[in-house]
Amino acid sequence: MVTIQEAITTVTTNTNKLVKPTVKPIEKANGYLLFEDILSPINMPPFRQSAMDGYALNLHDSLTYMVIDEVKAGDGHKPALKPGEAVRIFTGAPVPNTANAVIMQEKVVATNNKIELAHNIDLEQNIRPLGEQVKQGNVALKKGTKLTPAGIGYLLSLGITEVNVYKKPTIAIVTTGNELIEPGQTLTHGKIYESNSKMLLSALYSLKFYDITLYKVEDDYKQTVNTLKYAVNTHNLVLITGGISVGDYDFVGKALKEIQVEEVFYKVKQKPGKPLFFGKKENTAVFALPGNPAAALSCFYVYVYIALQKMMGFKTTNLPRVTAKSTSKFIKKGDRPQFLKAIYSNGNVAFLEGQNSSMLQTFALSNALVFIPETVTEVNIGDEVETILLPV
Predict the structure, then answer these.
(1) Which domains does the chain have, with CATH numbers?
(2) Pairing of strands 321-326, 262-266
(3) Which of 296, 317, 294 is nearest to 305 (CA)?
């Protein structure tokens, strides 16, 4: 049995970054890391651009200007201005080459074809220069940058339609157990609805992982071996729920050994989620999660999340942790560190009722896990506690 910190360190050091690139249409690249520097194919903006609605001026000594033309966004013509002349211009429109300042419309008095400025303005004022954001040929975004909606919009504004990104892991979710049936079927005596696979699928979807395959095996040793062998050989990450304990019909541990998955650790001194297995075969990471749903999801956020981030090449692999003030009392039984389902808000955190590892009702209301160390036996109102913020 290992400690929580030992387990976290071991998962981090034994999970490899995926190094294969894949080409993605830019609109489908959200959440991916860039595999290479992106060089800008154009200047952005591609022309001197008006920063506001107003008048583009060819400056002279007087505050009075003659308005000779109009330029709106998208116009391609290039009026020539003499000193003392102006054109009506709008935000985003190209500033004529012969104009050297733009004054906002609120700062002038317009009469017929003349305008009177309220004050003098500086050269190039309110003009976005050519290539202000990025110049043609320069690095627009560096290798390893995580693409966000803003990043995608930025690259699209440069005319880029596809990018080379680090490949996301292919993931297998394997559920075991004769007692499990699909929701929608008739619930007969001794059966329960299977929820772990879709729960983990939803958690992965929320983190923008989509290449996921679900497998279901009965409590049969040969079937367990064959399914796990295929999953391990064809995926980068395998998540197994149930069957890792030592009961007569728990075949997962024995099957993993037969297919030569190296056991890195088995069992973590924690509650919930003690019977957690982590192993690897070549570059495939394997987690055998507890069968109890709340325990499985807790282990997913504390350990599997780290492996996913490490595979993607992210430098920060843990979920964010903050120190929060407890608004609840709690007495810990036993000597194992514990993760408590909780609600965090504005620096305060409240523990929820129903912390049993089989209960998802409480987890459904929580947005955080509070970590209670081995040395702490009691938490009182006002105590500061370490709080893991869950993805929303």
Answers:
(1) 4-18+168-312 (3.40.980.10), 27-43+132-166 (3.90.105.10), 49-128 (2.170.190.11), 321-389 (2.40.340.10)
(2) unpaired
(3) 317
pLDDT one digit per residue (tens) for the chain, 392 residues: 999 999 999 999 999 988 889 999 999 999 899 999 999 999 999 999 999 999 999 999 999 999 999 999 999 989 999 999 999 999 999 999 999 999 999 999 999 999 999 999 999 999 999 999 999 999 999 999 999 999 999 999 999 999 999 999 999 999 887 666 667 776 777 776 677 899 999 999 999 899 999 999 988 889 999 999 999 999 999 999 976 666 544 788 899 999 999 999 999 999 999 999 999 999 999 999 998 889 999 999 999 999 999 998 888 889 999 999 999 999 998 899 999 999 999 999 999 988 887 678 888 999 999 999 999 999 999 999 999 999 97
The answer to whether 237 and 289 are in contact (CB under 8 A) is no
Contact 349, 343 (CB under 8 A): yes
* Residue of 33, 27, 34 whose CA lies nearest to 149: 27
* 3-class secondary structure, 296: helix
Cα–Cα distances in angstroms (integers) from residue 68 to residues 57, 87, 233, in the given order: 11, 6, 72
Q: Which of 365, 362, 353 is nearest to 328 (CA)?
A: 353
Please check whether residue 179 is in contact with residue 168, taking contact to mean a CB–CB distance below 8 angstroms: no
Helix, strand, or coil (residue 88): strand
Whether 231 contacts 174, CB under 8 Å: yes
pTM over 0.85: no
Sign of CA dihedral 375, 275, 266, 195: negative
How many C-beta atoms lie closer than 10 Å to residue 196's C-beta? 25
* The residue to which tokens 């036996």 are assigned: 377
Structure tokens given for 200: 């983990």
